[in-house]
Specification:
The complex is a heterodimer. By secondary structure, chain A is α+β, with helices and mostly antiparallel strands. Chain A contains seven helices and 25 strands. In chain A, strands 1, 2, 3, 4, 5, 6 and 7 form a seven-stranded mixed β-sheet that branches. Chain B contains twelve helices and 26 strands. In chain B, the strands form six sheets. In chain B, strands 1, 2, 4, 5, 6, 7 and 8 form a seven-stranded mixed β-sheet that branches. In chain B, strands 9, 19, 20, 21, 22, 23 and 26 form a seven-stranded mixed β-sheet that branches. Chain B has a six-stranded mixed β-sheet with strand order 15-14-11-18-25-24. In chain B, strand 7 and strand 8 (255-264) form a beta hairpin. In chain B, helix 3 crosses helix 4 (130-159) and helix 5 packs parallel to helix 6. Classes of the chains: A alpha+beta, B alpha+beta. Chains A and B meet through helix 1, strand 2, helix 2 and helix 3 of A and helix 3, strand 2, strand 4, helix 4 and helix 11 of B.
């Protein structure tokens, strides 16, 4: 069974437009570009209408100093199932136009975040025709441009008023928009061909396999294929066309402990080359592992409060770094007084042990043969992707930047990203944690045991899986800072087998924990997921080796209070006559 | 036409016949549909063994499943916007504890049951046995625990009242079995993408039309119902519709829109592109005329509603009051007030045998009617969503309120269902009484020309130079192209929702002197609530058949925002009504903010 959820298409609330005369000083750079007859019709229409709009809105009162159009041509297929049966099998094609107009100036414009209030993102997305009808595309773009301009004017008036009455922090003196060079890159569109029938059979098989265990209450498997071709033109002179194809298989299974705690396990496979789809056997192995974990968790005791040595496997460490460090290095947060701003003033200071380097590198397709979901050739503001060193041997060097500058970081480093329908802001891509102090995972575990003994603790904790702002696509929850260990073992120094525990809650400041890294393993592991934050859900990856932390503090998590089902599952009820 | 007794007898006969048919083993398995078997087995197990500790067992369990198969194509100005085909199955489980007089149902509180599952969700579409049993198991468990909590909260609340209500919670009804053959979805050999493109192309010829959307929808459903009293249903339906929206701005910036809709029970009945084009052209021409029409000034006086407008108006105005079911109880203090403000409560409950309409007017709801004077009626059905046979209901006889539409939820006036409990797709909300085919009939009518004469006479007597004639009412659910447009409409009329605010679309000033007409724009009506229909100055001998999709949801009830839905989420309904003349109606002009026109001229569509 799949619970009802609202579809994640955000149109936003309408802005009531009021006429206002605003005196305006300063102009943006609105450049002319020549139209090319050999461009794809969609791009041609966008280009021509952009020119018309730039000429008109650039002279309006107040002037629009920057305009960009992004049209995303989407082809998506989904095959999902639950408890042995198919839930959906469908394909869709959409074209979505996003128009951004900025009113004001690079220094202060309509997107400026007003203190204490959410930014007035008006609805930047609208459906346009699938047919390449240039005249109609002009019409649709014209309509949306005027809408967005009016909304920007409205927002700008609010910004100006607020600017006069509110005091400003140092970082808020930073401009609202960066100057960037234009880029031109036209690639051929991509697409996929898919026969959904074999996937329908596989989805049924995997979820039926979960139902074979009496500990499983519910399961859902989802296969998605998506091709997104992005067309971007803006008044800087950029013209960019590129496409990406992604395939994903997600497994989700649910159980319940006797005390009512919900038990959920999840696994995902991601690939971009159709030939690299996971084999049936690989997936079934994962089904067995997840089921075994549910069964083990059902019997596992709750963790006791603990502070001591903790080993994170590569995947857990990857998520941990993403949640605890990555989000705090997003550029726009440094401007916002309502954010923690933990690192705003710490550039060139030591924030991690000196053997740890953290990069965010969307230029990389894969690591050790594993695909990285956060690869992109251009970010969503049209900036070619860059490999950014965030922390160099423990020293903070950079923030993740989109086109919203900071006082000391006046330019984008190609991390302006968004889910369709949202305004781009700085987000992660492929967050890669590297270490100079490595040893084999086996040696690291020995060191871990030594540390447990050294600190005179009865045991240490091994964390194998963490949930955070990463979720699977069907349930995007934009809570970027939640860190919830899901698979945790007590590791005894006396050689006893590791013992699974449940209900672990990390307390204290996770940031302190990453300063207490003693050493790392030597094998990078990849976690691919969809990260939810203010600009919606975007595909990302995090890569990290195993990490040993000298001290992490955990407590018992609150459990849900509804009891497990009264009757056994129908297929596992000795008293009930059921069909095969 | 049938008395209640004959209906009950009839349903018993059907029950016997269907039971006999179902007992033949071959037919049950031929279609490879294991749905009812899975439902029956899980139901049996739950009734026998579902009990938490020493708590009470359920006294009633109900399973509802609906397969929904939708083909949707959207075109604009001759080009394709989207083309999809989706198949879903939704499940809704209802468990009650207590008894018919007092049970756990229909109680809204802030302390509801919190659990990680649900009694409703999307489930497997394979019509297999195993997955459905597993889903029903989870949902029944959740629904049962929720019922225990709700019952306890409800009892506590009722104990706190000095005079708790004495109306029973659930009516006793006979079991009914109707398992019909599966009807496979048939999209026909018509190419819907081509038709949508072709039909919408003609609108390119209107240079001032900003945007249009022409939607083709075909919906096939199979509804399964099983309860612990022995009622068992499998019933298939189909519905098809073409729904279009058109929008522009007047020269002073006022946003304007129009709509077109045509429905058929089967896709083969949908009109062909040439006919759709004709209707779209008509809608576009009306919109063009509105563009240059003057803004109307505030007005109070006689208003003539032509039959097409009158039927739409009546649908909106009467709908919420036709229901005799008691609204949910609530321990949340503001809840009742909220329902009232949104116009969600019935104004006719408690008024049985009082005059609610003019003395010569009757109002009949007839689910068995198929057509009227050669025009098909869309609202017919045989068995409602609670498994009760649909009855013809004589709501108003000679102006006096005699009956209300009932589901299995009793109300202050009636204790038994008359088969009107239904809910709208795709979410199976709990069924509430809604109309089927509504007939507004009068004996004291005048020919349309005489009605018009009376209209002008009243106008003159009222000292007016001109009065208003309304030829078409608005339908914002269909006319809004985007969420933004819908929000604009909402903000414009929010205040009038519960006090009889109505949205007309084509309004004409008619000169008293020579009867000439002039289209005006920006009008909205105030205060035309159901009480206003007690006094109608004149009723025509003409009629209009209005087939529409009725939205089943709460909130904004009684206005065009709530009454109307789309074929994908509405209940097919119809109303037959004549022209209506009112002596004193308040119609206001547009007093909103002036809107700017787009900076650039509209790009042409060759």
């Amino acid at each position: 069974m799949k619970l009802f959820r609202t579809t994640y298409r955000v149109w936003g609330a309408a802005a009531v437009i009021a006429a206002a005369s605003v005196s305006f000083a300063g102009t943006g750079r609105l450049t002319r570009q020549s139209s090319s007859a050999s461009l794809p019709p969609l791009l041609q229409a966008m280009q021509e209408e952009l020119q018309r709009s730039v000429d008109a809105y650039g002279k309006a009162d107040p002037p629009g100093y920057f305009i960009s159009y992004t049209t995303t041509d989407l082809h998506a297929a989904e095959v999902s199932g639950s408890n042995g049966a198919l839930l959906t099998s469908a394909e869709t094609r959409d074209r979505v136009l996003e128009v951004q107009t900025r009113v004001g100036s690079y220094q202060l414009d309509s997107t400026h975040k007003i203190e204490g209030r959410e930014p007035a993102w008006s609805s930047p997305g609208t459906e346009v025709t699938l047919d390449d009808d240039i005249a109609l595309l002009h019409r649709e773009i014209w309509r949306e441009t005027d809408r967005q301009y009016r909304a920007a004017v409205q927002a700008y008036i609010g910004v100006q008023t607020s600017n006069e009455v509110q005091s400003r922090s140092a970082e808020q003196a930073a401009p609202d928009f960066s100057h960037e060079e234009p880029h031109v890159s036209i690639s051929r569109p991509v697409d996929f061909q898919l026969d959904r029938t074999p996937w329908e059979e596989r989805i049924r098989k995997y979820t039926a396999a979960f139902s074979a265990s009496p500990s499983v209450i519910n399961s859902i498997a989802t296969f998605t294929a998506s091709s997104a071709n992005q067309y971007l033109v803006n008044s800087d002179g950029s013209r960019i066309v590129f496409g990406q194809i992604r395939y994903r298989l997600e497994l989700f299974v649910q159980g319940k402990a006797p005390d009512g705690m919900d038990l959920q396990r999840y696994a995902n496979f991601d690939w971009v080359d159709p030939a690299k789809a996971p084999s049936d056997e690989t997936v079934m192995d994962q089904v067995r592992i997840l089921t075994a974990q549910i069964v083990a968790l059902e019997k596992a005791p709750l963790v006791e409060p603990f502070a001591g040595p903790t080993l994170l496997t590569g995947r857990a460490a990857a998520v941990f770094f993403h949640e605890v460090l990555g989000h705090r290095l997003e550029g726009f947060r440094q401007k916002d007084v309502s954010e923690g701003q933990t690192f705003t003033s710490k550039i060139n200071q030591q924030i991690l042990p000196d053997f740890i380097t953290v990069r965010d590198d969307p230029t990389t397709h894969d690591v050790n043969g594993q695909v990285l979901l956060g690869y992109y050739p251009f970010d969503d503001e049209g900036i070619p992707s860059q490999n950014v060193t965030l922390v160099d041997h423990g020293i903070l060097k950079n923030f993740l930047m989109g086109r919203s500058p900071l006082v000391d970081f006046p330019h984008s480093n190609s991390h302006g990203r968004r889910q369709l329908g949202f305004q781009p802001i700085a987000r992660m891509g492929n967050t890669i944690v590297q270490s100079n102090k490595t040893m084999s995972n086996a040696a690291l575990r020995k060191l871990f045991i030594d540390e447990i003994r050294k600190q005179n603790k009865p045991f240490g904790l091994l964390i194998d899986d963490i949930a955070g702002g990463f979720t699977f696509t069907g349930r995007a929850q934009p809570q970027a800072f939640q860190v919830q260990p899901l698979i945790v073992y007590k590791v005894y120094p006396d050689g006893r087998p590791d013992e699974i525990v449940r209900g672990v809650n990390i307390v204290g400041t996770p940031l302190i924990s990453i300063t207490k890294i003693i050493a790392t393993g030597d094998t990078p592991e990849v976690f691919n997921g969809y990260c939810g934050a203010e600009s919606g859900s975007v595909p990302v990856s995090a890569v990290a080796p195993e990490i040993l932390i000298s001290e992490m503090e955990v407590s018992k998590k609150e459990t849900s209070t509804d009891t497990p089902p009264i009757l056994p599952p129908p297929a596992h009820d000795p008293q009930s006559r059921t069909k095969q | 036409m049938n008395s209640r007794f004959i209906n009950r007898l009839g349903s018993v006969l059907i029950t016997l016949a269907a039971v006999c048919a179902f007992a033949l083993p071959a037919s049950a398995q031929d279609d490879n549909d294991h749905t009812l078997q899975a439902m029956q087995d899980e139901m049996n197990r739950s009734i026998a063994r579902l009990q938490l500790d020493s708590q009470q067992k359920p006294y009633y369990i109900q399973y509802r499943i609906c397969d929904i198969d939708v083909r949707a194509v959207t075109a604009s100005f001759g080009t394709l916007f989207s083309s999809t085909h989706t198949r879903d199955r939704v499940m809704l489980v209802d468990v009650r504890v207590g008894d018919n007089k007092l049970d756990s149902s229909d109680f809204v509180s802030q302390n509801g049951f919190q659990g990680s599952s649900s009694n409703a969700g999307e489930v497997g579409i394979d019509r297999d046995y195993n997955s459905l049993r597993q889903d029903l198991w989870q949902a029944t468990d959740f629904a049962y625990k929720g019922a225990l909590v709700d019952y306890a909260n409800k009892q506590a609340f009722l104990n706190s009242l000095s005079r708790p209500p004495e109306i029973p919670d659930f009516s006793p009804e006979p079991a009914l079995v109707d398992v019909e053959p599966l009807v496979p979805a048939d999209w026909t050999s018509r190419n819907w993408e081509d038709e949508a493109r072709e039909a919408s192309k003609v609108l390119r010829g209107f240079p001032d039309l900003y945007g249009t959307r022409v939607h083709y929808y075909i919906v096939y459903t199979t509804y399964y119902f099983l309860n612990s009293e022995g009622t068992k249903l499998r019933i298939s339906h189909s519905n098809a519709g073409i729904e279009a929206s058109l929008d522009t701005q007047a020269t002073d910036g006022m946003p304007l829109h129009n709509f077109y809709a045509d429905y058929s029970a089967t896709p083969s009945g949908l009109p062909h592109p040439a006919d759709v084009s004709k209707s779209l052209v008509q809608a576009a021409q009306q919109l063009e005329a509105l563009r240059t029409a003057p803004n109307m000034e505030d007005y109070e006086g006689p208003v003539l509603f032509d039959a097409p407008a009158a039927s739409s108006l009546l649908a909106q105005a009467l709908e919420p009051s036709l229901s005799g079911a008691r609204p949910p109880l609530s321990s949340v203090p503001a809840y009742d007030q909220m329902i009232q403000q949104e116009g969600g409560s019935s104004e006719w409950t408690g008024r049985i045998n009082q005059r609610v309409l003019p003395l010569d007017v009757s109002l009949i709801d007839d689910p068995g009617a198929k057509d009227f004077q050669g025009q098909p009626l869309l609202g017919g059905y045989a068995i409602d969503d609670e498994g009760v046979r649909a009855e013809r209901v004589s709501v108003v006889e000679n102006g006096i309120l005699k009956n209300l539409l009932m589901s299995r939820r009793p109300g202050p006036d009636f204790m038994l269902s008359n088969g009107h409990g239904r809910s709208a797709l795709p979410i199976l909300s709990l069924p509430t009484p809604v109309s089927s085919n509504l007939f507004f009939q009068a004996t004291n009518t005048v020919a349309p020309s005489d009605l018009r004469k009376k209209f002008l006479d009243l106008c003159r007597a009222d000292g007016q130079k001109w009065c208003l004639e309304i030829k078409r009412m608005d339908n914002p659910a269909l006319a809004s192209q985007s969420q933004q447009d819908f929000s604009d409409i909402l903000s414009g009329i929010a205040q009038g929702l519960s006090s009889g605010g109505r949205l007309p679309l084509l309004v004409y000033r008619v000169s008293v002197d020579d009867g000439h007409e002039e289209l005006v724009r920006g009008a909205h009506i105030n205060g035309l609530n159901i009480r206003a229909f007690r006094t109608i100055a004149g009723i025509g001998s003409d009629f209009s058949v209005y087939n529409f999709m009725q939205a089943g949801a709460q909130g904004f009830a009684g206005t065009a925002l709530d009454t109307f839905g789309s074929v994908t989420d509405g209940i097919p309904s119809s109303i037959v009504a004549p022209s209506l003349l009112f002596e004193d109606v308040e119609v206001r002009g547009y007093h909103g903010e002036p809107r700017r026109l787009p900076l650039l001229p509209i790009p042409a569509l060759p």
